[in-house]
Amino acid sequence: MNINQNLFSDQVLPNWTFGQKNSYIDIKKAEMLKYNEDVQKGLEKTVFSSNCDSWYKNEKGKVVNNYHKGHISYWYENSRPNFKEFNFG
């Protein structure tokens, strides 16, 4: 588990229920698609998307395991979730 996952589970999850007894948290499909589109557009400008085979790409040539911004941006964005982007139940 990386440090960002620890931050999320230690600081965010205890507060996500807002007094409710929810058993799951799930990102809304539209938000996930929008985020993925943003990541893929950003990755187009990187060496990870260059015209070559690599373990960064799946069998269709899509980069699936890299982030398009720096480490600080990754930490910041993932340590402050927008709860309107999630379904709770």
Key features?
mainly alpha; elongated; 7% strand; 89 residues; 2 strands; two-stranded antiparallel sheet
What is the string of helix and strand elements?
A: HEHHE
Tell me the number of helical segments per DSSP (H or I, 4 or more residues long): 3
- Give the spatial strand order of the biggest sheet: 1-2
Distance between the termini: 25 Å
- Beta-strand percent range: 5-15%
Bulk shape: elongated
What does this 3D model show about the protein?
- It is elongated and about 50 Å long.
- Strands 1-2 form a two-stranded antiparallel ribbon.
- The protein is mainly alpha-helical and 89 residues long.
- It has helices at residues 3-12, 29-43, 71-79; strands at residues 25-27, 86-88.
- The two termini are 25 Å apart.
Topology:
Layout: H1 3-12, E1 25-27, H2 29-43, H3 71-79, E2 86-88
Antiparallel strand pairs: 1-2
Could you give a short description of this structure?
The chain is built from three helices and two strands. The chain has helices spanning 3-12, 29-43, 71-79; strands spanning 25-27, 86-88. The protein is mainly α and 89 residues long.
